[in-house]
Amino acid sequence: MVRRIKQATYIHERAGWPDFRWDHARISARLVNVRHRQGRLIGRMEGLGFQLRTEAVLDSLTEEVLKSSEIEGEKLDRDQVRSSIARRLGLDIGGLMPMDRDVEGVVEMMLDATQGYDRPLTAKRLFDWHAAMFPTGRSGMSKIRAGQRWAQRLPNNAFVLRKVALTRAKPSIE
Q: How many Cβ atoms from other residues are within 10 Å of residue 61's Cβ?
């Protein structure tokens, strides 16, 4: 009988979460390679004209927002996401369109995360992201406690106090 071990889908399903550990020797060569490729890409981007570089950034951020939301089962409108990002970056792409609240909150959080990557990741910042994604304090028909800590029983039965940030959270236990 072959016993299969279920591979973790989400980070909170991994053994030892949230106590992260890694083997520096195993990942250092890969990190060096990624950093080298990143440097080459940055060099190429700098060689592009301002308009092409701006368009590349807009496309990249749009894809990031769409894919991140898709992971959580949310299908956002590409044109709304692109328009919201362009407006927030002060770009004129013509034909700006009205946005859904969901799009605005996700874009606001993503831009803060990507453009403020060098700022500390504080509880206040995490809660601000959560509040931006749930401005009405609701997720669909369910009431949630946006922008604050909430308790959740995880699959491994560990009871933890979680800070909800980057993902669309399931309703909290009231």
A: 22
Q: Check if the beta carbon of residue 130 is closer than 8 Å to that of residue 147.
A: yes
Residue with the two structure tokens 């504080």: 122
pLDDT tens-digit map of 17-65 = 778 788 888 899 999 999 999 999 888 878 877 778 888 889 999 999 9
Cα dihedral across residues 59, 11, 9, 69: positive or negative: negative
Asked whether the beta carbons of 104 and 96 are under 8 A apart, the reply is no
φ, ψ dihedrals at 28, nearest 5°: -65, -40
Task: Please report where in the chains the tokens 């509880």 appear, as a residue.
Answer: 123
Give residue-wise pLDDT tens across range 51-105. 788 888 899 999 999 998 887 778 899 999 999 999 888 887 776 677 787 788 8
C-beta neighbour count of 26 within 10 angstroms? 8
